Each structure stands twice: as structure tokens, then as C-alpha cells.
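Progress note, sequence design subtask.
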């Protein structure tokens, strides 16, 4: 009998990167039965696009590199060890050669990505 565990485990070495507005993202814990939070390792590209979310709050934590976060007309300097909480409806994009850990709350929903073109 397979007993369902209450916890989830992700090995980012086994997760394929997928394109996202910021660059390339490896997304963990994105399942229909998990709406609490997900976790993404994101490689920021030079072509990152300004976007916002109507429902999700995101926490960006810089793992590698330097740059800045453009958020609601501000520029927040980014370097390893810096974290930024991005509330819903905040237009944002990361700029620079960066690798970040992103924690969306609730769990990532691709239908909640909005762009201003």
C-alpha cells in the first residue's frame, strides 16, 4: 500500500527549467493539490519583462550576482543575501546577472501573470 506523505520533497537538479518573464525558472511544489506556496530557482535574463500578479505575493532572495529590482518605479539594489517581499499588484522585474530563489504565496499560478505593454 502506498501511503501519501504530508510533506513534499524537490530535487532542483531533476527539475527542468521553463521560460518565464524573468528568464528561466525551475519550479518546485507546483501541484494542483498544493496551493500554499511554491519555490523557484530563477536565472534572470537580460530580456526580463515587467509584470505583476493580482493574487500572488512573491519573496525574492538573491543567491548569486548583482543587479536591481525595478518595482513600482523604485530601484532596489540586489546582491547575494538580499530578500524583497513583492506584494500583489506591484509591477516588477529583476535586472542584472542574477540567480534568485523565488517563493510565491499562494503557490505559483501561470494565469496570474500580467503584463503592461
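Output:
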Amino acid at each position: 500500500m502506498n501511503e501519501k506523505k504530508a510533506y513534499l520533497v524537490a530535487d532542483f537538479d531533476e527539475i527542468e527549467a521553463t521560460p518565464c518573464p524573468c528568464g528561466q525558472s525551475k519550479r518546485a511544489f507546483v501541484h494542483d493539490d498544493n496551493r500554499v506556496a511554491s519555490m523557484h530557482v530563477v536565472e534572470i535574463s537580460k530580456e526580463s519583462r515587467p509584470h505583476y500578479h493580482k493574487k500572488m505575493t512573491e519573496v525574492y532572495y538573491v543567491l548569486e550576482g548583482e543587479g536591481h529590482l525595478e518595482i513600482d518605479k523604485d530601484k532596489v539594489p540586489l546582491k547575494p543575501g538580499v530578500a524583497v517581499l513583492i506584494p500583489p499588484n506591484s509591477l516588477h522585474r529583476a535586472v542584472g546577472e542574477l540567480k534568485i530563489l523565488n517563493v510565491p504565496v499562494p503557490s505559483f499560478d501561470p494565469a496570474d501573470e500580467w503584463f503592461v505593454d
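The domain at 37-110 is CATH 2.60.120.10 (Jelly Rolls). Work on this subtask will continue into the next period as scheduled.
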